[in-house]
Specification:
mainly beta; four-stranded antiparallel beta sheet; three-stranded mixed beta sheet; 1 helix
């Protein structure tokens, strides 16, 4: 007779879709913090092709962007979330309220961000500008 399963054996396993959290800091740039309207992110996949609009923060105070499935601030082409098989590189543009200048950027995230199949781990990329 086999032993009865314990509650631990029968609990469902939580599986979250992959996500990338991109952080930035304006230290060392000309960005005027009280003049920021929004921040737009562009992504290049696997080091090839043009950068495409990934999405925007929706406000001036965010210094992070979460790219995950079905996020409302992510462009339609990327709403499925990041693909664990790809590597990504990002550019950031900061739009201004005064339009003087109309925007700052591109602010380059020089390091590629790669997703690895590590279960529910969120990969974070912290960058301080300017990147050497």
């Amino acid at each position: 007779m086999s032993p009865s399963p314990t509650p631990r054996d029968t609990e469902p396993v939580l599986s979250l879709p992959p996500a990338i959290v991109i952080y930035w800091d304006y230290t060392g740039t000309d960005v005027v913090l009280n003049d920021i309207r929004d921040v737009h992110l562009y992504v290049q996949t696997n080091g090839a092709g043009a950068y495409e609009h990934l999405g925007h923060t929706g406000n001036a105070s965010n210094q992070a962007f979460v790219w995950k499935a079905d996020s409302p601030l992510v462009s339609e082409a990327f709403r499925a979330g990041p693909d664990m098989e790809n590597a990504y590189q990002f550019l950031i543009y900061v739009t201004t309220i005064s339009l003087d200048p109309p925007l700052y950027g591109p602010l380059d995230i020089a390091n590629r961000v790669e997703l690895f199949p590590l279960g529910n781990v969120v990969i974070e990329q912290r960058v301080v500008f300017p990147v050497p």
